[in-house]
Amino acid sequence: xxxxxxxxxxxxxxxxxxxxxxxxxxxxxxxxxxxxxxxxxxxxxxxxxxxxxxxxxxxxxxxxxxxxxxxxxxxxxxxxxxxxxxxxxxxxxxxxxxxxxxxxxxxxxxxxxxxxxxxxxxxxxxxxxxxxxxxxxxxxxxxxxxxxxxxxxxxxxxxxxxxxxxxxxxxxxxxxxxxxxxxxxxxxxxxxxxxxxxxxxxxxxxxxxxxxxxxxxxxxxxxxxxxxxxxxxxxxxxxxxxxxxxx
Length: 247
Hints:
- This protein is an alpha/beta fold.
- 27% of the residues are buried.
- It is elongated.
- The chain contains nine helices and eleven strands.
- The chain has a domain of 124 residues: Rossmann fold.
- A six-stranded mixed sheet has the order 3-8-7-4-5-6, with helices on both faces.
């Protein structure tokens, strides 16, 4: 059976020049996009259970726009008046500029890295006296608090939002030749939605070591893996597989 339909478990790219669209056109196949997971904010009751005093912190570390949204949502619901002395440390410039949605940018102390957390650490170390608050997901990467501890920075990691499985019931009768996953949460969502899922001839593609591990632990066959030396991106891995499979 030739590969004709692929489902990518992520939102559709906003950029029309996405490599996925080029892949579909070049190979005359259909590629659909559907997020298997989505983010929901924790409720005030859940947040309070963590016994975190936001105002005892002097700096906030934002690793994404999502963390920005939920930090200000929670503080608004708690009716907290965030002092102008609060410092904001962002993973990159785009996240820093996103703060303008909630604060007067020029009146606040805002710092940012170049996109990698290691680079942001360099910025944080210049302000090592701060007491940092880190708004995170319930399924955050453990290396973030690990690196903060390594450099002996004072911080509190707090769950402001959580990753939950999306409702995929409308896909029950839709057949795809390849399912593409980018996180262990996507695999979890697959089985939450379809407990009796049987892989059979469906090919599974995964990105990242943790996702590949989740595929295997779920008892599924991993057919396509990225990044790899000859396929650093998912689209390249798919391209290589399709070329061989559709001969």
